[in-house]
Write a structure and sequence with these properties.
By secondary structure, the protein is mainly β. Helices cover about 5% and strands about 20% of the residues. It is built from one helix and four strands, in the order βαβββ. It has one helix at about 35-40; strands spanning about 30, 45-50, 75-80, 80-85. The strands form two sheets. The chain has a two-stranded antiparallel sheet. The chain has a two-stranded antiparallel ribbon with strand order 3-4. The protein is globular and about 45 Å long. The two termini are about 25 Å apart.
């Protein structure tokens, strides 16, 4: 069951936060969704969009996380398993 004493409610509407630079990758812009604050850093969620996509990709790397979700809103992404082009708001297994 969800421990409601440690998790806060978060509702971020369009316009509440802006896309900003300064994240892990300089070619992406990030928009905070308020999830990190609501979960006291247990979960991080933000929207990411390409600012100036690199020609050669990000290079091999991995994410150490218990849970990660990618939702492609627009366009395509290249992953180590191959190029994945998904319709808007779809996901892949």
């Amino acid at each position: 069951m969800l421990d409601r004493t440690t998790t806060l409610f978060s509702h971020v509407k369009p316009g509440d936060t802006q896309f900003v630079s300064g994240g892990l990758r300089d070619f992406f812009l990030y928009r905070d969704l308020g999830i990190a604050e609501a979960t006291h850093g247990k979960v991080i969620a933000h929207l990411v969009k390409a600012n100036m996509a690199p020609e050669t990709g990000t290079g091999w790397h991995r994410h150490a996380a218990d849970f990660q979700i990618v939702v492609m809103v627009k366009g395509c992404g290249r992953f180590m398993c191959g190029r994945i082009c998904l319709p808007p708001f779809s996901s892949s297994r």
